[in-house]
Design a protein that fits this description.
There is one protein chain. By secondary structure, this protein is an alpha/beta fold. It has three domains: about 45 residues, no CATH class; about 150 residues, Rossmann fold (3-Layer(aba) Sandwich); about 100 residues, Rossmann fold (3-Layer(aba) Sandwich), CATH 3.40.50. The strands form six sheets. The protein has a four-stranded parallel sheet. The protein has a four-stranded parallel sheet with strand order 13-12-14-18, sandwiched between helices. Helix 3 crosses helix 4. The longest helix has 16 residues. The relative contact order is 0.09.
Length: about 325
């Protein structure tokens, strides 16, 4: 296996790329898929390489006027701190045939200068929905939010009142990005698909983008890719069993189960960690949540303290919560 080392100065910083020649596939549009070693983390990164220019490909909107009329299938709204590491994800979406645009939230605040920051982002989203020649189907927010805006409030979230149990403080508030996506009618059904990368450092943003790109471009067909893990409290075990029997096993999936009745909290936590580490493409949490952050029934099934014990490498699951 022949390895080469390139140093690419793409205008966004210097990228040291270590890749295997036999894994590089260059198409007629000049895009290459490399198995790279970036900051000592293996990731498959789609790089839109041009003979004449950097990795920007015109994704970034840079003038307020361009916010008023434009077009996109996939829109990224990012804090300026994270712009530089978003280009591999933009290039991946572009390679799938989506028209990609990216805008820094500071430019939105300039173009829409009145009101709370959430209202200004919402005004921009309404402008996009009403006046862009092609409306985005997908919107990605890049940056964490903070309830009281004191720190790490990179892309603010709209807060709504909610009722919670007395032990959680009674009437409290919760954030909902869905508000940015309800742009037509008087309902709460989103008119675009919206998501968020809740990052607060450049390193975390870079790591998360690398994981996404690797996940979507990997050709791994190991056992984990058709394994589902169910983590269930005693009162929710029936639902997990039903999902397993109706949908998972008939499709040939392997199932790994953790059920509260099987043992003590230490045993259950250890078994859940083992399930993550052996790999699962889908994890269904059929239990409850608590503070400090844990999956619980009357016993603890998984705790935030167990995260440092996870060693599942590139076997990254989609986690669904049926709490």
């Amino acid at each position: 296996m022949d390895f080469g080392l390139w140093t690419l100065d793409c205008g966004l910083g210097v990228w040291d790329l270590v890749f295997s020649g036999e894994n590089a596939a260059i198409d007629r549009d000049g895009c290459a898929l490399y198995s790279c070693l970036m900051n000592r983390r293996c990731a498959s990164v789609l790089l839109a390489l041009s003979l004449l220019g950097p990795l920007t490909a015109g994704y970034l909107i840079t003038t307020p006027e361009s916010l008023m009329t434009n077009s996109a299938d996939y829109l990224v709204i990012t804090h300026p701190n994270f712009t530089s590491v978003m280009y591999p994800l933009c290039a991946l979406r572009d390679s799938l045939g989506l028209e990609v645009k990216m805008v820094e939230v500071s430019l939105i605040y300039t173009a829409f200068p009145t009101g709370a920051r959430t209202d200004r982002i919402r005004a921009f989203m309404q402008q996009v929905y009403d006046h862009w020649s092609a409306r985005p189907e997908f919107v990605l927010l890049v940056g964490d939010a903070c309830r009281d805006s004191t720190r790490d409030d990179f892309i603010p979230v709209k807060l709504f009142p909610k009722f919670s149990y007395d032990y959680a403080g009674g009437l409290t508030s919760h954030g909902a990005d869905n508000w940015y996506a309800t742009l037509s009618g008087h309902d709460s059904i989103p008119d675009v698909i919206i998501g968020r990368l809740p990052v607060n450092t450049l390193a975390r943003a870079e790591s998360l983008v690398a994981k996404i790109v690797h996940y979507e471009t990997s050709t791994d067909t190991g056992l984990w890719t058709h394994t589902t893990m169910f983590v269930s409290s005693s009162d929710r075990a029936f639902g997990a069993t039903e999902l397993e029997s109706l949908y998972m096993r008939p499709n040939g999936d392997s199932c790994y189960t953790v059920v509260e009745s099987e043992g003590s909290s230490p045993f259950l936590r250890h078994k859940t960690v083992a399930g993550f580490n052996q790999g699962a493409s889908l994890v269904c949490h059929c239990a409850h949540g608590s503070q400090p952050p844990s999956w619980v029934g009357s016993k603890t099934l998984f705790s935030y303290q167990d995260v440092d014990s996870l060693d599942n490498a590139d076997a990254l699951p989609v986690v669904l919560d049926r709490g």
